[in-house]
Amino acid sequence: MKSTPISSIMTKNVVCVSPKQKILDVKHIYEKKNFHHHIPVTEAGKLVGMVSLIDFMYSIEGAGLDDKNTVYNKLMVKDIMTSNPHSASSNVSIEKVAHELAKGKYHAIPIVEGDKIVGIVSTADVIKYFLEQQ
Question: In the chain, what are the domains?
Answer without folding.
Answer: 6-132 (3.10.580.10)
